[in-house]
Amino acid sequence: MKKMNQTKTVTFEAVPEKTVEILDDMEAKLSAFGVSEKVCRKTRFRLEDPLVELIRKSPDGSRVKLTVTSFFNSVSVRLSCKGSEIDYQESLEELFRGDIDEEAEAIIRTHLLKEYRRDIKLSRKGGINVISTNVIRRKKSRILISAVSMLLGVACGFVVKLLLSEETAQFLSDSVFGTGMSLFLRAIKMVISFLVFFSIASSLSGYKDLKELGKEFARVISLFALTSVVTILVTYGICNLIPIGDASLRSAADSSMQYDTLNGVSSLSDFLTDIVPDNYLDPFINTNMLQLLFIAILTGLSVAMMGKNGRKISDALSAADELFQKITLIIVKLMPVCIFCSMASLVIKTDLTELKHVAGWMGEVYLCDSVVILLLLMMVLILGKTSPFWFFKRLGRVLVSSFAMASSNAVMPMTMQTCREDLDISPGVYSFSIPLGIVINMDGGCVTMLVSTFFLARIYGVSITGEFLLPFFLSVFLLSVAAPAVPGGILLCLTVLLPQVGIPLESISIIIGLYFMVSMIQTMTNVTSTVACSYVADRMGKK
Q1: What CA–CA distance (Å, rounded) separates 533 from 433?
Q2: Domain CATH number, residue 25
């Protein structure tokens, strides 16, 4: 039986001539543990400079100890040697001595520091310097854990619903499963503002060529807009081919229900004005994502324009970004527990009577979202020159988690990790495109708003045709950008959209009971679209 934990250790003389031999041996051991050739090469490149510095700081007669450990589905590499303390900033100064353009130096320095801080751990104990890094070998276990958590949650929900009394089931749903979900979501909410701000600001501050940044930004925004327009047109076509809704459902509306409404987005002027905050701290306190994007972009660009004087600020932003990335990765380790609680609570609360009334609405939303996801995969194939099966497989864990959690914010750290480790998207792209897309790229939201509006319009005998279509489509697009990045945000958008086309606000009560089931596929579509656009933009830029 294969051991779960295996370690291979070897020592070498600490002289510069042994550097290549050490790296060759490391690659051979990684390969023996099943690490792919591509990951072996990346790990070699990542550790080459730190190894040179480790040897340079060692006294004569020292030996470098190489340890490669395999544990479950991950492999770690550890290099250790006696010597004086390593200062990576100092090694960068050595690297840049000579005839090198100042602007090029700033770009390379920022990139190397980010890579070093993110991927390599440097420690020192008892006069021994230790350099270590984790090498992920396979991601199948992560997808499996998420899928099993979801299935166990569904099974647990059915058992509780069938075997226990309604009061007990409701207690478990609210006090046990609900508490588990609330703790996780509150933890994410605690750091999400800082994660978005520092991720975008540190990414943009590293660009010294603002012209190149403008190209990257334009590519991402153009792809976001393109996918939204295609989503609106495709969904409109499906709604016409498969009309749903009947006047008999009008009696299910509850006029006594009260709704929170989304104000301030009824016009382009109001929308643009609301992007600029009254002060710098309000967006952090109120988690206003659009305002956070504004000040993050403004901060990042300002630091980039400061040139050499902005280097220390850029390093500080990168360090803060690393800090909140680490915090969120710790929180994300609890994701399987939250997925379990979410699915169990969902099954317990599902009312089969309501499901019968709006089955057509749910079915059409799922159909349209599935078609949009297929079109996004075709975009990856045509524009990204990549197999859609490969892309979908690499994104699997994020899709399962986003479906179960129905929250783009909750899976954002996992999404960024997948972009870096599985899809090999450049940090300069995903570190601003993912937070940006989570806020403004809502293809799944467009689907939900369109299908819901046409469904309710047929129930109330409202016709949306001819000259009303263009203003209606523009409203859907604007509202998808302005939608709050919180669970139920699209429902708030419907409170603005429905009265504009003459549908009573009370009609929302027909669909509100089962909206959470629709929000699952909606979130999955949003995340797929954001990652697909980021991937294609990155490939177009590299090409």
Answers
A1: 8
A2: 3.30.565.10
Does the CA dihedral 351-353-356-362 come out positive or negative?
negative
Given a cut of 50, whether residue 173 has pLDDT beyond it is: yes
The sign one gets for the Cα dihedral 372, 377, 378, 379 is positive
Predicted pLDDT at 105: 53
Listed in sequence order, the residues at least 6 apart from 352 whose beta carbon sits closer than 8 Å to its beta carbon are none
* Residue 435 C-alpha from the chain's centroid: 7
Q: Which pairing describes strands 74-82 and 63-71: parallel, antiparallel, or unpaired? A: antiparallel
Q: Please check whether residues 145 and 97 belong to one and the same domain.
A: no
152 and 192: one domain? yes
CA distance linking residue 225 with residue 396, whole number of Å: 24
The one-letter amino acid code at 22 reads I
199 and 252 in a single domain? The answer is yes
Q: How far is CA 509 from the centre of its chain?
A: 31
Q: pLDDT per residue over 41-73, tens digit each?
A: 888 887 888 888 888 888 888 899 988 887 656
- Identify the CATH number of the domain in which residue 352 sits: 1.10.3860.10
For 71-109, the pLDDT digits (tens) are 656 788 888 888 888 765 555 555 545 555 555 555 555
What pLDDT, in 10s, does the model give residues 411-461?
A: 888 888 888 878 888 877 888 888 888 878 889 989 999 999 998 888 888
In 372-398, which positions are buried (b, 16+ CB within 10 angstroms) versus exposed (e)?
Answer: bbebbbebbbebbebebeebbebbbbb
The total of other beta-carbon atoms located within 10 Å of residue 163's CB is 9
Confidence of residue 226 (pLDDT cuts 50, 70, 90): very high
**What pLDDT is attached to residue 161?**
84
The number of beta carbons lying within 10 Å of the beta carbon of residue 483 is 26
Per the structure, the count of domains in the chain is 2
User: Is residue 159 located within the same domain as residue 100?
Assistant: no
* C-alpha–C-alpha distance, residues 338 and 342, integer Å: 6
Cβ–Cβ under 8 Å, residues 128 and 54:
no
